[in-house]
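Record 1 of the preview.
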Amino acid sequence: MIALAAVALLLWQLRTVLVLLFGAVVMGTIFRAIAEPMSKHLRLPDGVAVLVSVLLIIGILAGVGWLLGQQISAQTDALTQALPAALGRVDQWLGGFGLSHPFQTWLAQLHSNGGTLVSRFGSWLSSASSGVANFLIVFFGGAFLASEPRFYRTGAIKLIPEAKRGVFAQAMDESEHALRLWLKGELIAMLVIGTMTGAGLWLLGVQSWLVLGILAGFFEFIPFAGPILSAIPGVLIALVQSPQLALWTGLMYVFVQHSEAYLIQPIIQQYAVDVPAVVLLFSLLAFAVLFGPIGILFAAPLSVVSFVMVKRLYVIEALDTATPIPGEEKG
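->
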């Protein structure tokens, strides 16, 4: 009993490391999904195909990072100069409805707390540095896992009692299959949402529409919170141009997300794995409480794998109750 409690305490202390390990597994799955078609169709050796997939993703990330950096640098000065005036116009507009001046009050508080903000800058910088370090760990950990998947899979299975190794191996295979299907569906959704958002912003005449479309596509990876996070910079940039444009931009984001929820996702899920929305929502809350921001980032793939594992190892094996495994009918 004491040993069990000690193991539980150790796992709790290492929870961030475990989430990073899972992130490396997700990254490794992405590398393998890119590398395997190259090995099959181009006859590349497995190691070379994995290396090409890693370099391909590095190139994509570097290009997106450069583009984002250029646009953010160009927009920062404009936001700094025009945002107070734009918020003042919104305050006047709200005043016509009998509301007070929330933005002017907020700006006054922000100005009075300037010293506090400066003092917090160090902690924000430290958090950003930690985030970059975590990303590098996940990225290169995924590359190592993708280079020798059978070696690490066999090692994990050997940690399980011999009588249960077959069931655990089956659960791992089913989890990997479901995760690949989810990643395929998520990639399609990211491309569609990014394209729709960028096109909508371009039609409205919002500056930096291309970068904002890319951001919307990337934030689609985060369930529920992602669409809100992607809308904030778009609405702010539109607000610099005019409050009316900001309103139309906000409505455009709402339209895109409703289209995604009621039209795009149902079509995508015909070909990918689906997790019930209630399970995903409460998993997001649970992983956020347990693991913090990094738990939110990996909430969706964690939910997929946890859903499969619970069904296979608990519902089917422990309770002896038949239940469909997500993705098995789409194999």
